[in-house]
Design a protein that fits this description.
By secondary structure, the protein is α/β, with parallel strands linked by helices. GO terms for molecular function: D-cysteine desulfhydrase activity.
Length: about 375
């Protein structure tokens, strides 16, 4: 049975922190030789969290192992999740929620630019039985989440639903990448890769970066994390990520974890903002170029919303001789597992709630 490296480092957490194994670990590390040669960066490596699970990969798997275990431990009756249209986190909640036996899952969505993956994810959510709704505004989102919560609450039996947090919005969700940092340390100790000078990772709500940066410190690694922002700056910035790290430290200490960390500040966070573009999920020229170059040299698919922008930032960074000589790890956080099996039982778009029908019309923004 898989034992999280975090628990091996701090055995006292086994009884106090909920966890259920749903991934395939450790995820691979290997050099990107052809791409590194093209970029003049011979020390370019990749961590394949796109392969973190046999059914659905990416960074959400590590989060779900702690968050959904918490839902199980609390004996919650249903899951409520939310995100932008086609949210990968909502889909991960549906996929792994079903794996753990949750048969009631509600999802509330907000607007975002429409790409093919958005339509695919919505159909998969529906195929997995998610009850889907659409929020016209932030206020509408709050009201609909509250409605779903009350709908699944039964005062007579004490049953309550579980609101799945966005990555970064709870200490438990950050623990996935605290654990991942200890996994990386073990791979370095085994000689599978050199200790990176720098690690590039995609940053949305910040929990992945926060967990990784804290985990590297606790594991004794001096690698610096460079986050590449792909979400609106008001929701994704240095101050928020520092706060997420500090909150996770407090949580671990409450669990009796003997850790010593100074308080993190915004100045401790390295976040690149110039590759975001004009809006969340909007494509950029630099991102598209990075996707094409990576595909050409490594046969590695990236996407326009997340990893393409992160690779574009990495390519820009290594364009100088000073940075090109460093050992750099690209932490791949997008799913690469074929999702066609989930689509075999997917409903037709017209069977979705009427509010979603317009998103299946042809769009000039399709990728």
């Amino acid at each position: 049975m898989y034992q999280p490296p975090l628990f091996r480092a701090y055995p006292g957490l086994r009884e106090k922190v909920p966890f259920t194994s749903m991934g395939t670990y450790p995820t691979r590390v290997h050099p990107l030789k052809k791409l590194g040669q093209h970029l003049g960066c011979p020390g370019l490596w990749i961590k394949r969290d796109d392969e973190s699970s046999a059914i659905y990969g990416g960074n959400k798997v590590r989060m779900m192992e702690f968050v959904l275990a918490d839902a199980k431990r609390k004996n919650r009756s249903a899951l409520i999740c939310w995100g932008s249209l086609g949210s990968n986190q909502v889909m991960a909640s549906c996929i792994f929620g079903r794996e753990l036996g949750f048969d009631k899952i509600s999802a509330v969505f907000r607007q975002q630019p429409i790409h093919d993956y958005v339509r695919r994810n919505l159909l998969i959510d529906a195929a997995l039985g998610a009850r889907m709704d659409y929020a016209e505004s932030s206020a509408d989102l709050v009201l609909k989440l509250l409605f779903q919560y009350l709908k699944h609450t039964n005062p007579l039996t004490g049953k309550r639903p579980y609101l799945v947090p966005m990555v970064g919005s709870s200490a438990l969700s950050c623990l996935g990448y605290v654990n991942a940092a200890f996994e990386l340390k073990e791979q370095i100790d085994e000689g599978l890769l050199p200790a990176p000078d720098l690690i590039f990772i995609t940053v949305g709500t910040g929990g992945t970066m926060a967990g990784l940066q804290l985990g590297l410190h606790l594991a004794g690694l001096e690698s610096k994390v460079i986050g590449v922002r792909v979400l609106d700056r008001i929701f994704s910035n240095e101050r928020i990520i520092a706060w997420e790290i500090n909150r996770t430290v407090r949580f671990l200490k409450r669990c009796g974890c003997p850790i010593h960390c100074r308080r993190y500040r915004a100045e401790d966070i390295i976040l690149m903002h110039d590759f975001y573009g004009e809006e969340y999920a909007g494509s950029t020229v630099a991102g598209k170029v990075a996707i094409e170059i990576t595909q050409e040299h490594e046969g590695l698919p990236l996407d326009v919303t997340y990893t393409g922008k992160t690779m574009a930032a990495l390519m820009s960074f290594v364009a100088t001789n000073e940075n090109a000589g460093k050992t750099i790890l690209f932490w791949h956080t997008l799913n690469s597992v074929d999702l066609k099996p989930f689509l075999e039982n997917a409903p037709k778009p017209e069977s979705l709630p009427p509010k979603f029908h317009r998103y299946f019309l042809p769009s000039r923004d399709d990728q």
